[in-house]
Amino acid sequence: MAAVHLLDRLGFEVHASTGRPQACDFLRRLGAGVMVDREELARPERPLRSETWAGVVDTVGSPHWPTPVPARAGTVLSRPVAWRRAATSPTACSPLSCTAYTLYGINCVFVLNALRERAWSLLAAHVPEELLSELAHDIVLGDAIAASADLLDGRLHGRVVVDVNR
Question: Is 133 in the same domain as 120?
Answer without folding.
Answer: no
